[in-house]
């Protein structure tokens, strides 16, 4: 029976190169789909039978591939590919998952496939998105500088320096801009925590992430909690949860 292989890669050249290499290393392999985004991958995984093996590029057209694991259940083995440096590669391998450095080398790809054939990938992949995304950003010193939001029929880019607050309400996530606009985002707060610079943004509670540059005051509250005052008007108080007070004070001190 042919080995069913899924490829998730947003660079056409890289996808074709991987397909060509796999055709030589796994002659009886069958590429069941080639996808280029988090959204299309989640949809495919939910609608089609699981492949025998998958190759995921880390950075996709609409986000980081780790988001797939948060949005749907992945029950098949995955080999990750990344253009990041070897230092990042070694850090990711702590998670006991194979990461191949781009440009892909035939001997490394062959070794990863051998591990698969030897039963190395016997358990479904399980990832903690926020920690993986945070590790990725810390190693590359690359955090999101803007977020894309939909305003009516238009797409608008919001620079992070214009964001005063990220917040969740009724299972949706919003950004409040320095101009006081409330705009919906296609991210969870957990994802955002790993994507923004932790020196500039702090998650004060389950429902709020505040921007350092937009804080105007911090007021003591009952129960050893704190209330954060921002330069923009908010619906209700932005409260620092009791368990985060110490860390929040340390963050303010720098």
Automatic annotation (TrEMBL):
Q: Which Pfam families match?
A: LytTR, Response_reg
**Could you tell me which PROSITE patterns the record lists for this protein?**
HTH_LYTTR (PS50930), RESPONSE_REGULATORY (PS50110)
Keyword annotations for this protein? Phosphoprotein
Q: Which SUPFAM superfamilies match?
A: CheY-like (SSF52172)
What positions are modified (4-aspartylphosphate)? 57
Extract one GO molecular function annotation from the record: DNA binding
Using the record's annotation, list all stretches that form the HTH LytTR-type domain: 147-254
The record's listing under Gene3D superfamilies reads: 3.40.50.2300, LytTr DNA-binding domain (2.40.50.1020)
Task: Tell me yes or no: is Phosphoprotein among this UniProt entry's keywords.
Answer: yes
All copies of domain Response regulatory, residue ranges: 4-117
Q: Which PANTHER family match?
A: STAGE 0 SPORULATION PROTEIN A HOMOLOG, TRANSCRIPTIONAL REGULATOR-RELATED
Protein's recorded name:
Two-component system response regulator
Source organism (scientific name): Geofilum rubicundum JCM 15548
